[in-house]
Amino acid sequence: GAVVSQHPSWVICKSGTSVKIECRSLDFQATTMFWYRQFPKQSLMLMATSNEGSKATYEQGVEKDKFLINHASLTLSTLTVTSAHPEDSSFYICSARWDRDSSPLHFGNGTRLTVT
Amino acid sequence: AQSVTQLDSQVPVFEEAPVELRCNYSSSVSVYLFWYVQYPNQGLQLLLKYLSGSTLVKGINGFEAEFNKSQTSFHLRKPSVHISDTAEYFCAVSDHPRAGGSYIPTFGRGTSLIVHP
Lengths: 116, 117
Fold this sequence. Notes:
heterodimer, A: seven-stranded mixed sheet, four-stranded antiparallel sheet, 11 strands, globular, B: mainly beta
């Protein structure tokens, strides 16, 4: 149980284009979803927290207009990297949690984004 | 504010040997503690969690961890490792939120467990 599906698993795009990453909780309702960015050999950097039906809460230093997060339903959140640049190349991971804050996070398998 | 320290960035060990991955946290209140494992190019998978009750927690793949409140530690152990345990391990802590807030877990920098044949 508690499966989170993240698509695509990898994507290559040209500089200036936008890329959308989907995160779905397949067998539970995710009241909260988290988006992380991970650099090679480093820990996870929290980008934003989103609750269904409300605006995402972004961490300090994360550009809201560049990393658009939508949490339209209890099972789907999307991250859109707008006007991507090579420095946006990274591993992006989503995670979802159901109603209790003591619940562990369930992670997607991540998306490797390469901007050329 | 909570913080998590994983002092060992890399732990090499031979197959079938025991291993301990250290995790210390700083928080002035009660916490929830988690260990996750990440295999290359994948997301994180929950190994085990401590919410309350018994301080010795058993998880998947033969791992266990012990919560020590006085030492603010939550070290991960396995009595005999396999080659397949080679991965990155992350400790995470969530402490009780401020009024109206949400638990947002903080992750340690990770420990790379390398199991040699």
